Homer protein homolog 1 isoform X2
Amino acid sequence: MGEQPIFSSRAHVFQIDPSTKKNWVPTSKHAVTVSYFYDSTRTVYRIISLDGAKAIINSTITPNMTFTKTSHKFGQWADSRANTVYGLGFSSEAHLSKFADKFAEFKEAARLAKERSQEKMELTSTPSQESATGDLQSPVTPENINGTNERVTPDTAFNTESRAETNAVPFPHSSTSITKHWEAELAALKGNNAKLTAALLESTANVKQWKQQLAAYQDEAERLHRRVTELECVSGQTAGVKTQKTELNQTIEELEAELKAREEELENLKEEVEKASQLQTQKDSLAQKLQETERRNAELESQLQDLEQRLETGQLESESFRKSLRSLLELLDGKIFELSELRDSLAKLMEDDSS
C-alpha cells in the first residue's frame, strides 16, 4: 500500500537557526499542510510538509522524540537525524493540542513496532548467529539516535492572531462584482491546489519505493531472460524443462505488464505535477488581477472623493453667487422705485407748469 496520510493540520513551519541554535527561521511564507504518514511496509511514521514542490519537513518519528508545547499555539520537536529542531505555529490552541496528541499516539505506536521487530529478530535467530552477529541485532540506525528532547525557546512568541483585517470601502457595483468574482475563482483554485498538493505529497512519497521495485523487477526480468536462454541451449530438453520455461515466460510477461503499469503511474504523476504548476500559475495571475482591481478601486475612490469635494466647493460658490445676486436685485428694485417716484414728481411739475 505504501505510505498513506493519516492526519493533517495547517501551521506555520519554522526551523532553528543552525548558527545560533536559538532563533527561529521561517521555512514557509504562509500556513501550509503538515501531515502524518504511515508506511505499512516498514511500519514507520513520518511527518511531511510541502511548500509548493519543496519538502520543508521530512521527519521520521522515533520513540526517543518528544513534542514540546512552548506556548498555547506553538510546539517543537528535535530531529537529530536531520540535525535540526522543527517548530510549528498553529492558529488555535485546539489545533496544537490535537497535533501533540497524535504525535504522542504515533510515537507510542513506533515504540511498539520497534519492540515487536526486535522480538521477531530474537525468535528467528539461532544460537550460532547470536554469537557471531550479536552486535548486528542492535544496529545503529536513525531510529536509535533520533530525538534529543532538546527544548529551544524562541526569542519572540508566535502569534497568528495579530493579523488585522481591513474592511473595504463600498464603491460602484460593477467593480465590487468583479472583485468578488475573482475572489471566488481564487478560493476555488486554492481548494483545488490543496487537493492536488495532498495527492502529490502522497504520490511523491511512493515514487522512491516504486523506482526501487521497478529496478528489482528489471533485474529479475534480465535474470529470467538469461535463464531461458540457458535452458534453450541445453540439448534434449525434458518435459519438465519445457514446463519450467513456460512458467518463466509467464513470469516475465507478468513482470513486464507490472513494469508497464508502473510506468503509466509515473506518467500520471508527471501530469499531476504539471497540472499543479498550471493551477499555481493561474492562482498567481488571479491574485495579480485582484491586486490590480483593488488598486484601481482605490484610485477611483480617490477620484470620487476629489469630485465630491469639487462639487461641494461649487455648491458653496453657487450659494454665495445667489446671495450676491439677490442683494443686487434688491438694490436694483430700490433704484427702480426711486426712479418711479422721480418720474411721478417730474410729471406733476410738468402739469403744474402747463396749468
